[in-house]
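Minutes, methods subgroup
Present: GH (chair), OT, SY

1. OT presented the first of two proteins processed in the latest run. Sequence and structure tokens recorded below as shown on screen.
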Amino acid sequence: MSIVVTGATGHLGRLAIQSLLAKGVPAAEIVGLGRQVDKIADLGITVKQVSYEDPESLRAAFEGADKVLFISGSEAGARLAQHTNVVAAAQAAQVGLLVYTSIAKADTSDLKLAEEHLATEKLITESGLPYVFLRNSWYLENYNVAQGLEHGFVGASGEGRISAATRADFAEAAAAVLTSDNQAGRVYELGGPGFTMDEFAAEVAKQSGKPVTYTDLGEDKYREMLVGVGLPEGFAAILADSDRGAAAGQLFVPADDLESLLGRPATSLTTYVGTALKS
């Protein structure tokens, strides 16, 4: 069996490969694709330098692949063109299963970030390839505990519950799908138990013994604040819009799918904060 992992040189890709190895998949059966291949040279797998902008390199890398973990691109606004190349290459290579990392509630969400994911899901379903959609909610790592401890947390998510989980949990779930049978056609809504940002701040305060607050600015003021600290306007707008969606419940999903794939509870907020405070 051959399992190809795209975006393997990023955080999630590396963790997915480590999870595959931990599940007993031989290193010789794993191919990692990415731009900065030196980042995964230590894993003992086959490594190929590939870019989502290079259709020919993708086609060559997918030849003979039984399964492909297709990790979405990180460049919002450029994803759809990149993803079109990936899907076309997978179709040309007739891969046995295409597992795509999407976003929570991609088919109903009105988040700006969801648009390219939903379009990619459509490309995949129309390709005729067997597929699985891993609709990941937020990463817990999106929240900088040390920074929040020093300055407090700010945002625009109000009282919305956010089903964030660690990258490691999402990666392990992906590995579980890749090493299981009868997965084609499944759609998993993946996220942790969920919390509000007030609860997040309270947990940091509890474990640190210091006062920590969450300040809700609303979407417009939050976007302005992000631009004010140096973020590009487009990216700031996406982050503020994501918090707007979170306030409306669009980043909350039950933990059932994730915990079923993991075979254990997802990493708790308490555990994540405790680990972050020690690092």
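2. SY then presented the second protein from the same run.
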Amino acid sequence: MTKVTTVNVNGLRAAAKKGYVEWLAAGDADVVCLQEVRAEPHQLPDAVREPDGRYAVWAPSEAKGRAGVALLTRAEPERVRVGFGAAEFAESGRYVEADLPGGLTVASLYLPSGEVGTERQDEKERFMAAFLPYLRELREKAAADGREVAVCGDWNIAHTEADLKNWRANRKNAGFLPEERDWLSRVFDPADGGYADVVRALHPDVGGPYSWWSYRGRAFDNDTGWRIDLVCTTEGLARRAVKAEVERAASHAERWSDHAPVSVTFGV
């Protein structure tokens, strides 16, 4: 079995003070993908920067205090790549991937969130336009090398109405725009991107399971959430998925991020 977990930590230094360290130490994931680290490695406590029993790969953003992704793996990576070849996003702290022993390539992704009518949405659209061709290239190269791929992280798009509680009120908002959802459909199209949404495949007929809840109001208590933290894999790996779960905190007070960890377990 191989277990992969992804979580947007919403600032790792803050999360480390609220339960992240204990959560990581108690977990059994073989790979942990982190997003929105918002810190450079030297700014992190030793126990966070170099957790026991794991190899850590950090990809901070050149914009201080923003973005940042990381991979924590039990096996030593054979190869690491930061960025996906687009010059604009080379040091944006939004993508890092590693080849692991046993034929698995795993990546941590923090896709821009966007905001309608602003430069942030333009940035998101440029990112998506550059990233889809790379996803195809990654899948094709992996197939040629006999490898499987898992791109995990905060994709910042709810794909269908089942992926957010209050979808009617969000039809004109970033994260649920028709063009964003169409782009994600292309990622999941076997004739285009060729990736599978593993959590949805294992939970086909439910709302959610949600992985992000706003800190505003009582969104968490009412489970008014979004499913935007995805584990997307090549088809061969998707067929080996046996379990998917969202580690929703027992209460609002016990949360150490506004996102919950999402885990998928794959059989041999």
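Chair's summary of item 2: DSSP finds seven helices and twelve strands in the chain.
Next meeting: continue with the remaining queue.
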